[in-house]
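Dear colleagues,

As part of the handover before I leave the project, I'm documenting each prediction I ran so the next person doesn't have to rerun anything. This entry is a single chain, and its sequence is reproduced below.
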Amino acid sequence: MRQTSTAPRNNKLKPSSNLIMNGSVRVRVIRTLLAIQNGQSLASVLDPLLNSLHDGDKSFAHALLLTTLRQWYALARLLDTLADNPIDEVEVRTTIQVGLAQLLYLEVADHAAIHETVEAAKEIDFAHATGLINAILRKVAKNPSKFRKKCDKKHSLPNWLAYQLKQDWSEQYDELMQGLRQAAPMFLRVNSAVTSVEDYQQALDGAEIDADIVELTTGFNLPNSSDTAIATTLSTKGLRLHQSTAVNALPDFAFGVASVQDMHAQLAAPIINKALMAKISTDKSNTDIDSEANNNELHILDACAAPGGKLAHWLELLSSNEPSLFHVKQNDESVPLVSKVKLTAIDNEAPRIERIHTNLQRLNLSQHDLQQAEKDIELNIVCADATRWQHGKNKKAATNEPVFDAILLDSPCTATGVIRRHPDISILRTEEDVEQTALLQADILHNLWPQLKAGGYLLYVTCSILKQENVEQMQDFISHHNDAVAIEFTEYCSWGIAQAIGRQCLPIDSESGDGFYYALLHKTMA
């Protein structure tokens, strides 16, 4: 996808496949930025960039690349005011923006930032523009605080996205525009089947890694058999690091004790798990749970599961000795709600499926590991398209009949809620992508909903902050499905902003999680 910018782009970029990692650090960063403008994602080009550098240069290259991306559109608008004539060459604009990022945001010494950036232009065969580049950077270097203020006053998003966010979040708009330009904090999810958040915080302290415990409370009203609402609350705990840290420095990370996962993403598995437990407990309220569990098995689905963070969290909760489907208290004794859980996970790309397997192996949650455990959990990971996939071993067996007791749908989205972590999103996304993504979401919902049993729950999750993909998607879905009822999140929620359906988290401050949307749907008997 081509960047939408404030200046015309008449010349075409070189193909992304021609990305060459040689030359100075700044040259490699410039080439990486050009590849992103030509449609490659940051995730696909970051490792090649860093792996091409000596260890001493990696930190600077990473900071320069991410900072330039986070301030991309603000720097572009500033550049347009600094140039006497429009600058049409993408390579020249990119080089100047890299120079501006050094002077305004990284506090690189003036002479180094200017000289090295001018030299970089020569290395990428744009020596004819060195005079222009030098003049603009020297002008800014004379009064960097002035130009930094000018830059910070503007948002750093494409105009179409800024306009839509102002429509969706008028009250939070100013804070949101600044929040999206900041680096996101690093959060950890602690494997509750292995240790507690408090104990792992102590382990981090022993490794001289400072972290705070973050606790989020979720409240919602769940229906019971008598058609009345049951007030339900749950607590989700994670850790927020004071400074981002390499995972190999985290205690026992390789052994699956903890995972890197945004705090708001950590809400998904506990919510759907709690809803499922409440449903089963209510269904069995007038029966002997222990005897009923002997022949009771559940089938649950994690749709669009890659890279597996929410799936792993759900498996951790199922495997934990804390209250779970296999371990609840009744008359001071521990009894199971179910005898077996069948968990199906699907995603539509083979490489992403491999990432699921890799992550589960590190956490000791592969199918082999689960078979060795006391609890009867059967995991089946399938490469399939969620818009068409139906449960069954083959097409003839796939009948689209209700089979799942609960579905976690981490829906495809524009990922506008994670721009802080993936600032290339603001360059790669287009206005047309929002409409296409909303249609894709609707197709998935319409395909999966018939496969949910009456009385079951579907948790709809996105990492988008656009209402078209979130609350408006849910309103449209419910209007077409008489058996879909939105579960109300109550005032006991310590996260997010209440919507007509569900709740929306916004990435506004430097200590909060990313922009996630949650809606919990209940399938009635009608």
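Residues 431-448 form the longest helix (18 residues). The radius of gyration is 25 Å.

All the best with the project,
I.
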